[in-house]
Write a structure and sequence with these properties.
globular; 5 helices; three-stranded antiparallel sheet; single chain; alpha+beta; Nucleoside Triphosphate Pyrophosphohydrolase; 210 residues; eight-stranded mixed sheet
Length: 210
């Protein structure tokens, strides 16, 4: 892996602290490889978008840093059963996109905002469901207990951050879009397929760190 094979919280803080909360939460950046996407697919990601925030929750364990991920409920209308970070759409009461990410994380998996130390934000990324999603990176207290909203989340699991930062683990794949194949990247970790916006956020995190 390029850079430090054993990333630390100090590294995350140093690299991400200069990355401020975005002034415009719907100013998106298309993910790597998007130049090869069909024009109509690109256009579907750059129309009117609703701001959303997710937390990339990093936890310091005995064997190193891990990232907490969720598997969405199979009953959801959008992104059912997909692997994702906890988060959701911005509400009027949210004072910033960071507040959105922390509130949604608390609602979905039970991690209180007081248990999160925010390091910084990555660029917002668009989704085909009409959201501009800002990833907020933060460390979570190791003793945090997970209480899942089963209407939203079926399970949570942790992946070593070193695995996700290893470029050899980001594999090329394809997804269907209106009968056409669109190139994407994905990670395979045990039975879990991490793809789409979630995979692109992890690739962007690696870029910021190294």
């Amino acid at each position: 892996m390029t850079g430090n094979a054993n990333p630390t919280l100090a590294l995350l803080e140093a690299r991400l602290a200069p990355l401020c909360v975005p002034d415009d939460p719907v100013a998106v950046e298309l993910p790597p490889g998007s130049e090869d996407w069909p024009a109509e697919f690109r256009e579907s990601l750059t129309g009117a978008l609703r701001p959303a925030g997710v937390l990339i929750p990093v936890i310091e364990r005995r064997d190193g840093l891990t990232v907490l991920l969720t598997r969405r409920s199979s009953a959801l209308k959008h992104h059912a059963s997909q692997i994702a970070f906890p988060g959701g759409g911005m509400e009027d009461a949210d004072t910033s996109i960071v507040d959105t990410a922390l509130r949604e994380t608390h609602e979905e998996v039970g991690i209180a905002p007081s248990q999160v130390t925010v390091f910084g934000c990555l660029e917002a990324m668009p989704t085909v469901t009409g959201y501009a999603v800002t990833p907020v990176v933060g460390s979570v207290a190791p003793d945090a207990e997970f209480v899942l909203d089963r209407n939203e989340v079926e399970l949570v699991f942790e992946v070593p951050l070193s695995f996700l930062l290893d470029p050899g683990n980001a594999q090329r794949a394809q997804r269907d879009f209106r009968g056409r194949k669109v190139p994407i990247f994905e990670y395979r970790y045990g039975p879990h397929r991490i793809w789409g916006a979630t995979a692109h956020m992890l690739m962007k995190l690696r870029e910021k760190l190294y």
